């Protein structure tokens, strides 16, 4: 692994890939800062797994340039392989070996000494709560245990960049939380994580930056907050104590407010910024209407997801 | 470490993995060794009485049919071995662990080298087991040390050739069923050759096929080495067949292995 400090862990430009005449990736650009979590979010069939397979040297791109850990992927794939760890969507453990043997197999292939390999295996078994299952065949493991073993195998060689293709797919809520904590701990230790997910909640919780992939194109990229601001639907909700208060406020704010007489509420469109909030309150200040309760609603990623991925293919790339 | 020692150590690691698989999932190994042993018992104890007298005068003069049939069944073991290899390779390729190996900075051919060596050990051990059973049944070879060494050399070449071809089958097949069926005709080849009965007794068309298929010269060479029957130019033809099959299997395997796998 190169220890030179590169601010960029993964840089891809103009990534293209077709399977037969089916265009899977249509020129995507990615830029992942070292030491951060980057989430590639998209519906099934968007091309997420293809991106991971290309970036992890499993398949070759038809076009585009890629640098991973400072190495040109096309020219020096072995240098890239030495710097990365990959946990694919489908379990990559050897079912006919025990958990411990699986880890030692990977240690042997990473050319650790016998002693180092055993030590590293013991350490990871402990870290991933697999000590009791260490001598059982991986075929007997539960889904969550298998996923933990899979990730432990990825970490044997202390890779600086880790690819996780849908790391929590098929896990129960507890297993998912455990996996999230593991991922956070990894990044705290300086590792760069590139993950794909179709769970918006997951990207929202974990990722420093999110790219939304649809039909082989990145349709939006940014932090979770930035993405949420991309779509309309954010509003300020004002709750009034009396119908007269509601009436006078509605008159003052006239325009695009939507009012609910039963609940005595008004919804005022807002981009969620402090300025828009102050503007609304300033206008109400002179009125007799007292706002009893105020809440700010920003669209969640689900809305962003639907709004941005439901578009026809001609949608041009939007960058924040 | 140098890249050569990496190549060796990675291949040894893969070999160890494959041998562990054989021990933990013995179904394939049992079939590889069991099918020829089953045919040995069937042909000697069921058909042997009738076949033995018909065959005896024609070749070595031995009156025990096991002396005639063993070389053909040893060759059949190479075929059942290739069936096991194709199946194992295909199963392995559908496992995610191979994808993991491909994302690691290892000596890539070690995946196939480890497989080929493990398969050869498995097939040769099955041949030894078959020979042991035959000896218990009264098989009495006349070979001297030199002939034994030549016979083992021939079997190594044959096993090597069919193993590489089987690796290619396993890599090329889309399903495990297809992979295990592809080498199946090889198991039948000793029957339509000189494995069970001499080809002279067969109808004209079959006799023509038997004369030109690869297993007949190999069986004749092996029989000559073990039992002292005439070999003539069969040895040379056998070596040529083995070399040709090895080359095809190796080149095909390499091509299939390098292919982008998207499943």
Number of strands of chain A: 15
C-alpha termini separation of chain B: 34 Å
Most extensive interface, chain pair and sizes? A-B, 34 and 24 residues
Instruction: Please outline the major beta sheet of chain A.
Output: 7 strands, mixed
Which residues of chain B sit in consecutive blocks of at least 5 with pLDDT less than 50? none
Q: Which geometry of chain B do the CA atoms define?
A: elongated
- How far do the termini of chain A sit from each other? 33 Å
Shape of chain A: elongated
Oligomer: heterodimer
Q: Unreliable segments of chain A (pLDDT under 50, ≥5 consecutive)?
A: 312-320
Helix content of chain A: 25-40%
Largest sheet of chain B: none
Radius of gyration of chain A: 25 Å
In terms of DSSP E residues, the strand content of chain B is under 5%
Structural class of chain B: mainly alpha
How much beta of chain A, percentage-wise?
25-35%
Please estimate the helix content of chain B.
Answer: over 70%
- SSE order of chain A in H/E notation? EEEHEEHEHHHEHEHEEHEHEEHEHE
Molecular structure report:
The complex is a heterodimer of chains A (320) and B (263). Chain A contains eleven helices and 15 strands. Chain A is of the alpha/beta class. Chain A has a seven-stranded mixed sheet, with helices on both faces. In chain A, strands 2-1-4-5 form a four-stranded antiparallel sheet, with helices on one face. Chain A has a four-stranded antiparallel sheet with strand order 12-13-11-14. The longest helix of chain A has 16 residues, at 173-188. In chain A, strand 7 (161-165), helix 6 and strand 8 (192-197) form a beta-alpha-beta unit. The model of chain B has no long low-confidence stretch (mean pLDDT 90). Helix content of chain B is 77%, strand content 0%. Chain B has helices at 3-24, 27-56, 65-94, 96-102, 110-136, 145-172, 176-181, 184-188, 204-212, 215-227, 234-258. In chain B, helix 3 (65-94) runs parallel beside helix 6 (145-172), helix 5 (110-136) crosses helix 6 and helix 6 (145-172) packs antiparallel against helix 10 (215-227).
